[in-house]
Design brief:
The protein has about 200 residues and is of the alpha/beta class. It contains seven helices and five strands. The protein has a five-stranded mixed beta sheet, with helices on both faces. Helix 2 crosses helix 3. The radius of gyration is 17 Å and the shape is globular.
Length: about 200
C-alpha cells in the first residue's frame, strides 16, 4: 500500500467504522492522523487481516499516531436514528475527540454527513488504499471486537465471542431460541422477521 494524499500540506485524518451490518452491539468509528514517516508495512483493510495481526498493528498505530480517537453509538441509538445515521454520528464523535483538528477527512465509503468545519473526501474501498483509513479501520474493528467479547460474558447464549454480533446462521438460531438480548438492534430484527415471511 502506498500513502495517497489528496492535498499536500494538509493535516489529514482517516475515518472508518465497524459493525454497521450487525444484529447486535454498537457501531464503532475511529479517526486517525498518521505521521508522514509512519511504517505502513502490513497495513490494510482490517477485514483482510488476522486477529493477531490487527492487534499488532493497533499497538503500532496507537504508539505512533499523531492523534487517534475511537467513539461509538449503542444499539438504542441505531434503533432511534437508523444505522447509517448512527455510523455518521459515531464518526463525528471520533473526529471531535481528536487531540488535533484535521484539515481534511478521508472517509471510507461513498457517503458521509459533512462536518460543519472540515472538508472531506469519500473513497470507496479507502481502507485498502489509504494508510490513514486502514489505520482507522483497524482501531474501530479491534475496539468493537473487545466490546463484543465483554458483551459475550454478560450474554453468553448468543456466541458473540465468535460472531461479534453479525448475522451468522448460528446467531440467528440463538435469537430464535432465546429471544433478543438488551444489546440487540430491534429495528434490524423487525426487518429480518419481515423478510422471513416471504
Amino acid at each position: 500500500m502506498q500513502l495517497r494524499y489528496g492535498h499536500d500540506q494538509l493535516i489529514q485524518a482517516g475515518v472508518d467504522e465497524a459493525g454497521r451490518g450487525c444484529l447486535a452491539g454498537p457501531v464503532v468509528a475511529a479517526a486517525v492522523i498518521l505521521p508522514d514517516d509512519f511504517d505502513i508495512r502490513g497495513l490494510r483493510d482490517s477485514k483482510k487481516l488476522s486477529f493477531k495481526k490487527r492487534l499488532e498493528l493497533r499497538e503500532r498505530i496507537i504508539d505512533n499516531a499523531i492523534a487517534w480517537s475511537v467513539a461509538s453509538c449503542c444499539n438504542e441509538i441505531v434503533d432511534a436514528i437508523n444505522v447509517l445515521n448512527a455510523s455518521f454520528e459515531a464518526m463525528h464523535r471520533a473526529i471531535q475527540n481528536l487531540a488535533i483538528t484535521p484539515e481534511l477527512l478521508l472517509i471510507d465509503g461513498n457517503r458521509f454527513k459533512p462536518h460543519p468545519f472540515i472538508e472531506h473526501q469519500t473513497i470507496i474501498k479507502g481502507d485498502d488504499l489509504y494508510a490513514h483509513i486502514a489505520a482507522a479501520s483497524i482501531l474501530a474493528k479491534t475496539y468493537r471486537d473487545e466490546l463484543m467479547l465483554d458483551y459475550h460474558s454478560r450474554y453468553p447464549n448468543y456466541s458473540l465471542d465468535k460472531n461479534k454480533g453479525y448475522p451468522t446462521f448460528e446467531h440467528r438460531q440463538c435469537i430464535s431460541e432465546y429471544g433478543l438480548s438488551p444489546i440487540h438492534r430491534k429495528t434490524f430484527m423487525i426487518k429480518t422477521v419481515q423478510l422471513s415471511m416471504f
